[in-house]
């Protein structure tokens, strides 16, 4: 097939394009390609040959296919291998051909997809036979022919969800195609692309002359990015970040020496950045005269760390929302390690356990530019799952399920006709008190809870003891909930809960076990309901429970490590010999005695 003209997309504009019922697929950030079965050759959209390994060609079906050579999300840098004159087998192991159309099929897109599905299945069947005769490791990889997933768009909210889901996972955007459309070898209004656009500024450092129809005119602007420092910008002096940009109209191309001389500040759009920090698919938008540019001095290390920590917290919570606990943990561990650094550079980061290449690149990007690609992709995303995760008892799986059912706000969840089927009893209570649970509890209010609880306990047993632990004991200005530690037995615990319920203080129960109560409480003089946990501990465990549940987490980690260094293991119940697991021969009656026994300087709760 000589000089095939592929179907190209127009930009999707909300309000202008009605796409209900259209088919949506991921926009792959690879190389657009079509496979010619007669010549057994891959071509680019400009009809230039791709040099492909022979085994990759063998995997293709005998059909003209339109698709994308792709290595995976956020891996565009690795796609350079497809441009090599001599392909290396090992460099193609992770590359797939994501197919999404058949250019020479006469039917509409729905019909073409049915035909395409048959040929992809045929390829997979053939590959299982072909791969057996190929050398290792090629014989162990899946068939490289993959059919791009297509989803019918239900409405504008459904499209927004599909788009955000792909962007949040590192995708480039989505493609939308009319199911009734024929294949057109031009830029078609029946095929739309929907991808994020980032706005930034740059300074022109050179001009590149045009070729072909632009011979004698401006071809591209050579630029350095600007780094935004809120009240001013500075020039990014990293040569790896220098880029060329097009998108100017003919008037600019003709008069660029006058209108766009070297040193001009411009705004441009791009679709994210490469691993090296260069803008991808940069597009010129306009000249800027309101940008203040000056040399950027050395930023205080604490200020730099504060920005990194702020961005990593957002990224960590985003991964947590996605159910990616391992990735979330990596961000939160990095935050702890960053706090202790005296300087931040590639050398110092390489010496930090838990900070690998990916995190190091993100940190250095934040140091250099104030941001990083991963953060730029999600910073403006409104993810309803985050709101649902704030409901007591709702985890990532349930939050995702609610969004998939088309529920995107707390209000729409409350109005759902089948609410009792969507949430269990505990989650329903969490939803009922959603706003109250989100509201922080002032220290002075917890003082009132403390007095009420102690008065009730004194009525039951004047010799019993209790402590409100957590951030309240550390004298934080506010807390998320009330953590009560009760010293006694199960009989005291049951009586304590019973009396508090009769008095109307414990208003709603989330969970009640033999040792721990979770629920909602309220002071008579207050309108807001509060989350409360009440846990009973034996007298000999009480000092350890107070120490553990007071925190902070970092302080507890340091103290437990101090114990381990002395051959001891400590938790919220006791202190044991690490080797024999036997309790130490000592009766502890207070926190201070634990410190003294471990020869650890006593630290007041508010300093931990």
TrEMBL record:
Annotated GO MF terms: ATP binding; class I DNA-(apurinic or apyrimidinic site) endonuclease activity; DNA binding; DNA ligase (ATP) activity; DNA-directed DNA polymerase activity
Record's subcellular location:
Cytoplasm
ATP-dependent DNA ligase family profile domain: from which residue to which, for each copy? 88-206
Entry keyword Ubl conjugation: yes
Major localization listed first in the record, in broad terms? cytoplasm
The cofactor named in the record is: Mg(2+)
Q: What is its EC number?
A: 2.7.7.7, 4.2.99.18
Catalysis: reaction(s): 2'-deoxyribonucleotide-(2'-deoxyribose 5'-phosphate)-2'-deoxyribonucleotide-DNA = a 3'-end 2'-deoxyribonucleotide-(2,3-dehydro-2,3-deoxyribose 5'-phosphate)-DNA + a 5'-end 5'-phospho-2'-deoxyribonucleoside-DNA + H(+); DNA(n) + a 2'-deoxyribonucleoside 5'-triphosphate = DNA(n+1) + diphosphate; a 5'-end 2'-deoxyribose-2'-deoxyribonucleotide-DNA = (2E,4S)-4-hydroxypenten-2-al-5-phosphate + a 5'-end 5'-phospho-2'-deoxyribonucleoside-DNA + H(+)
InterPro entries, per the entry: DNA-dir_DNA_pol_X (IPR002054), DNA_ligase_ATP-dep_cent (IPR012310), DNA_ligase_ATP-dep_CS (IPR016059), DNA_ligase_OB (IPR029319), DNA_pol_B_palm_palm (IPR028207), DNA_pol_lambd_fingers_domain (IPR018944), DNA_pol_lamdba_lyase_dom_sf (IPR027421), DNA_Pol_thumb_sf (IPR037160)
Q: Which residues form a coiled coil?
A: none
GO annotation terms (biological process): DNA recombination; double-strand break repair via nonhomologous end joining
Record-given protein name: DNA polymerase beta
């Amino acid at each position: 097939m000589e000089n095939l003209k592929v179907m190209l997309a127009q930009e999707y504009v909300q309000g202008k394009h009605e796409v209900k019922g259209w088919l949506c697929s991921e926009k792959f950030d690879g190389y657009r390609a079509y496979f010619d079965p007669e010549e057994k050759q891959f071509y680019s959209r400009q009809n230039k040959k791709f040099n492909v390994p022979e085994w990759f060609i063998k995997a293709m079906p005998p059909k003209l296919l339109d698709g994308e050579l792709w290595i995976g999300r956020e891996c565009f840098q690795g796609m350079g291998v497809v441009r090599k004159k001599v392909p290396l087998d090992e460099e193609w192991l992770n590359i797939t051909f994501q197919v999404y159309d058949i250019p020479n099929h006469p039917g509409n897109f729905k019909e073409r997809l049915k035909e395409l599905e048959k040929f992809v299945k045929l390829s997979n069947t053939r590959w299982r036979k072909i791969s057996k005769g190929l050398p290792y490791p090629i014989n162990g990889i899946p068939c490289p022919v993959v059919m791009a997933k297509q989803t019918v768009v239900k409405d504008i909210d459904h499209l927004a969800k599909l788009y955000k889901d792909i962007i949040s996972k590192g995708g480039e955007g989505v493609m939308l195609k009319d199911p009734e459309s024929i294949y057109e070898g031009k830029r078609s209004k029946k095929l739309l692309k929907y991808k994020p656009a980032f706005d930034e500024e740059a300074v022109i450092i050179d001009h590149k002359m045009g070729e072909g129809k632009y011979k004698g005119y401006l071809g591209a602007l050579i630029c350095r990015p600007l780094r935004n420092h809120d009240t001013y910008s500075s020039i990014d002096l990293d040569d790896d970040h220098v880029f060329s940009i097009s998108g100017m109209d003919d008037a600019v191309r003709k008069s660029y020496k006058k209108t766009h001389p070297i040193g001009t500040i411009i705004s441009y759009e791009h679709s994210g950045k490469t691993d090296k920090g260069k803008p991808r698919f940069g597009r010129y938008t306009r000249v800027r005269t309101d940008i203040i540019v000056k040399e950027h001095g050395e930023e205080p290390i604490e200020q730099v760390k504060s920005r990194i920590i702020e961005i990593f917290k957002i990224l960590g919570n985003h991964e947590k929302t996605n159910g990616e606990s391992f990735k979330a943990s990596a961000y939160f561990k990095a935050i702890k390690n960053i706090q202790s650094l005296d300087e931040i550079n590639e050398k110092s980061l390489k010496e930090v356990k838990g900070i690998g290449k990916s995190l190091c690149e993100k940190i250095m990007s934040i140091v250099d530019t104030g941001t990083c690609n991963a953060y730029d992709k999600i910073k403006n995303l409104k993810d309803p799952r985050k709101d649902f995760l704030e409901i007591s008892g709702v985890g990532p799986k349930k939050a995702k399920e609610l969004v998939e059912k088309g529920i995107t706000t707390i209000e729409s969840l409350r109005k759902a006709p089948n609410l009792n089927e969507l949430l269990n009893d505990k989650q329903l209570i969490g939803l009922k008190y959603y706003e109250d649970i989100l509201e922080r509890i002032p220290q002075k209010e917890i003082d009132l809870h403390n007095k009420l609880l102690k008065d009730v306990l004194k009525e039951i047993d004047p010799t019993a003891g209790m402590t409100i632990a957590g951030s309240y004991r550390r004298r934080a200005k506010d807390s998320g909930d009330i953590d009560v530690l009760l010293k006694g037995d199960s009989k005291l615990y049951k009586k304590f809960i019973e009396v508090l319920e009769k008095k109307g203080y414990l208003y709603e129960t989330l969970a009640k076990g033999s040792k721990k109560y979770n629920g909602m409480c309220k002071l008579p003089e207050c309108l807001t309901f509060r989350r409360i946990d009440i846990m009973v501990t034996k007298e000999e465990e009480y000092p350890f429970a107070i120490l553990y549940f007071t925190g902070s987490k970092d302080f507890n980690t340091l103290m437990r490590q101090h114990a381990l260094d002395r051959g001891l293991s400590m938790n919220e119940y006791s202190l044991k010999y690490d080797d024999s697991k036997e309790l130490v021969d000592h009766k502890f009656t207070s926190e201070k005695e634990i410190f003294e026994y471990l020869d650890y300087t006593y630290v007041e709760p508010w300093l931990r």
